[in-house]
Amino acid sequence: MLTRLDRRTLLAGSLALGASGLALPRIALAQGQGTHNLLFVLLRGAADGMAMLAPVGDPGLAALRGASLDDYANAPRIGSFFALHPAFAEVGKAVEAGEALFVHAAATAYRERSHFDGQNLLETGGTAPYATRDGWLNRLAGLLGEAHKGEAPRALAVAPSVPLALRGAAPVSSYAPSALPDASEDFMARVGALYEADSELAGLWSRALETRAMAGDDGLRNLRDASANGALIASLMQGKRGARIAMIEIDGWDTHANQRGTFARQARGLDALLAAYKSGMGEAWRNTMVLVATEFGRTARLNGTGGTDHGTASAAMILGGGVRGGRVIADWPGLAAGQLYEGRDLAPTTALESVLAGALAEHFSLDPARALGRLFPGRAATPLAGIVRA
Amino acid sequence: MSPVSIALNRFGYGLARGEQPPGDPQTYLLRQLDAYDPAPRTIAARAGTRGKTGEMLELLRSLRREMQQAGKTGMGGTVMAGPMNDMAQDNPRAAALAGLPPEYRAKFLEARRVLIDDLAVRVNVATASPAPMVERLVHFWSNHFSVSVGKPGTQFEAGPHEFAAIRPHVLGRFSDMLKAAALHPAMLLYLDQFQSTGPGSPFQQRRGRRAAQAGRRGGLNENLAREILELHTLGVDGGYSQADVTELARALTGWTVPGIGRVGRFAEDQPNGAAFVALAHEPGSRQIMGRRYAAGGPDQALAVLDDLAAHPATARHIASKLARHFGGDTPPASLVARLEADFLKTGGDLASLTRTLIAAPEVWVPGPVKFRTPFEWFIAAARLSGMDALPPQRIARVLNELGQSPWRAPSPAGYDDIAASWAAPDVLLRRVELAERMAQGAPAEDVLARAEAAFPDALSDTTRTMLKRAESGRQALALLLVSPEMMRR
Fold first, then answer.
1. How much is the ipTM here?
2. For the whole model, what pTM was predicted?
3. Which superkingdom (chain A) (predicted)?
4. Residues of B with CB below 8 A from A183's CB?
5. Is the residue at A159 inside a domain?
6. Which residue segment(s) compose the domain that A112 sits in?
């Protein structure tokens, strides 16, 4: 039986939201930014929210997605309406443990369909592509520095170069495993001297040395092993000298053709990364939040080649030891022909910026309105509340 | 930077070991327009399409079928899951390859070998070139029409795409390059065009009933159409609508790569190894950017591309990108306007555009105006160090470590062309590590004199002092390779 849902219903999962989690004492010390961690995972290429979290309770879904829905026959349900893609086995466990939630039918302010503009907007937090030059994650580092009257927390891109979301005034490091042999110490010292008078290169150089020292011998040759990658990020966020804010990008979500297999592989990779990261964070997971977002969603209907084209709303994921999880937050727009955005896409009903700002404000104990104003200026939306357990 | 240093470094790939710095900088650059060879021997031998793409895709299909069978019987599913997706990867790839039947393994290895050899040819031609500025243009345009070997089958065609669709046209007409590059098998495959068919085409009509019964849908894929408008021609603010994207996608139906299953039998050969299947083409006339295109075969898309190439938005878009590449991350508006006007006046004559660029005063500001990308830095370092040509495997590995493997950009927009994307801590450290290695195998005499020649009247006192203080010629060379002068142009 299919259930009709009121369009304005806030969907809450049937899973008990972490009785154990609620019982955990909130440690006063953990309120400061000094011990709170954030990992932002950017899914580049427009990940399909309807494949990630299939609205199986919507009567319109079968006509749009056809045989690909077989994948969800035995998939874990969140509430009666949504089924999680089966490749997200570990995420599913986190949902069950009340440590992960989804926001569905969410989108940034961007309403066109260019990856590059969409990513630009999601990363800068501006209201129009290319209107803002720095990234919201970098501004968050600055904001935390001010709010807690200290230095900006260490920020790190786990990538060979710094993605736009992390670029800006606050210093940021980058790190990615390399198969190149280390340079000799003498040579490194001379390079340091060579760059002394060059402020840009000197800054890059000192940050590179710091992060490399932190990573030690990572034993990795590249960033492609999802699980090792998750463990690596966690290792770079350990202790006082570790990064408090980190970002990683995952490519490959642009599933224009044969989406079923590709999406499953991508999802398995993301799932393994998140699981290894959580396990690597150990005790610190309690004070850690992971935000997973993508630039926009995909067409509701499969195209002629078993894929989906660029669309509008998608889903976002929030995980963490303090998250009030086990549920899906959605003002479900429906999938009937008249309900789709421009007759083709899942319609956006939640502003992704308000989700991000709300989650970050609660996680870092910031004033929500101030967080929204700084990270995503010019937005009318209210920051979403109730993401973190009170 | 001095004008000679600008001619060498901002315009080109720097001085090669043994070369003398040029006299008049503009004359030096203009002569390269004549000295450029679009098809040196090594490239001519590799420019033809391999015709292997169809084979490769058929192979992948049968492999997928076998996997599904294996999955149903509960064996081998996970071992086999890797290779199609992970061919770009190293360790997982090796592991996945080991689990394959020999005939499949041989094909995957062949694809990788072909790709690596093409890559080495690209690098070695640029390193030895007497026209490094024009080689830079080749790489600029190749990035503009970016294809990625992350997609199975494209490994055979990424090299030929640059060699046959880009190189012959860098000093020719933009419209010719557009048609050759956007409709080359590499692009047709990379952006899913090869499997896009017109919903109203005879092929779909005939197939319709059977497919509907089997629950399959067939039809249009608008990926290539969208990227042609957004990235290759008009630019994202170029004034096109979703309706233009869909209409262009319809016009493009029928363009595919030969040798693929059902449709392949009806393919008519097109230039550069593409094919056109009339049965898959959407019938009827098209309306794109306010112009009407009569019903037709392969010519319908070609006519649209010709008009897009000549559109004022395209002139603006190309001018901005070229200005950014040579004139700085935020190029002066006067430079963009100068290039735009030339493009419009000549209808996209790229030789004229290059001469206008060379003559533009905005490109001769002392600077530096750009942070070198990893690929630019590597070619400049290889030229300056004068080391022997590296083996293909090594070249592929090094470029991967530096963070910029050609034909592997993360998106159809190609690699970024701004410092913010490349001037990062880890990227710098990798260059330092590699420089020390490169200097081990290169001639290391007279490094200071080579430095003065490579950056005439542009070497800083700090760099000069550090080179003098180096404990060996090799160390001096390694320091020169990572000096601030080498990092920027």
1. 0.87
2. 0.75
3. Bacteria
4. 432-433, 435-436
5. no
6. 19-128+247-278+288-375
